[in-house]
Amino acid sequence: MSLNQILPFVSSAVMLAFTVSVLQRWLVRRKPHFLFWGIGLAMFTAGSLAEAYFAFGRWSAPVFFAWYLFGAALNAAWIGHGSLLLLVRKRWVSVVTLLLILGSLAAAGLMVQAILRANGSAYVAGVPISEQYRAVMPPIRDGGLVRLTTPFFNIYGLLTLVGGALWSAYLFLRKQVLPNRVVGNVLIAAGALSIGLASTLTRLGVGTYLYLGELVAGGLMYSGFLMAARPATQTEIETAMTTSVA
Amino acid sequence: MDERDGSQRAADVPAGEARPRPEGSRVPAGSVTYARLLPALLVVMAVIMGLLIVIAAGVLLGFVPYR
Q1: Fewer CB within 10 A of the terminal residue: chain B, N end or C end?
Q2: What is the complex's ipTM, to 2 decimals?
Q3: Whole-prediction pTM value?
Q4: For residue A155, what is the nearest residue in chain B, using CA coordinates?
Q5: Is residue A79 pLDDT above 70, yes or no?
Q6: A130-A122-A105-A113 Cα dihedral, nearest 10 degrees
Q7: Contact check, Cβ <8 Å, A193/B41
Q8: What is the rounded CA–CA span in Å between residue B24 and residue B22?
Q9: Nearest by CB to A179, which of B8, B34, B60?
Q10: Count of CB pairs separated by less than 8 Å, A with B
Q11: Is A56 exposed, middle or buried (0-12, 13-18, 19+ CB in 10 A)?
């Protein structure tokens, strides 16, 4: 097996552990940002698992559906929206939540339309799906409209996930408090940027680094989350809450 | 994705007494990492984020070839 066939399995394992860790926190705390992070990370995991499936060299329309919709289009936006829910507690965020859910459902509908017209016979075993999905997907004018939705979701995801982590790190740094959260947020931002870079290269026709980018992203974001989420003492919590932008 | 809901209970501190600041809650004083390196890293990452958003917007608007 080549490296590009092994990497999705490793990424899947890392992302699965990360997802379970976040969803466990949601089950205990019942905070909405944990739920959105958990759903977004589950989507990321689904995308990695789909890549792992394609590493066996078999075509499957449902697996391609999961790879594109969850792995390429939606996951960053859902993870980033969790960060927005944590950082901003204003009424307009509820409107954004509704728009995200409706937009995701619309993208799922468009993906059903695309998958019905997908050209599965163009799939070549042994070539990473990130390097050949364009040959499988129908053109935008012929049922591939879902491709136009990915930039919207990914721009929103980048702004909220990377922007949120950078903003949090900046606030803690400015207050000179909680160094673990400064470093944790820097790691999260770096991880999100690595997958953002790899995805952008893929969109521009260079899909070779996508799987490596996913593994780096999973490792960095999980490490950052563990570091930033380390239990704090009451004094630390009080200090941290004063840096909130809520 | 920082998580601000710490789980530990407040230490019992008698009224009127200053609560001792726990070790590790402050950025180390005079640290080059926190004073120079990390702020520079934040700026670099913000610039990269901006570039990625411009490229994604370019794809959306047709300025960047979509492949």
Answers
A1: C
A2: 0.85
A3: 0.86
A4: B53
A5: yes
A6: 160
A7: no
A8: 6
A9: B34
A10: 148
A11: exposed
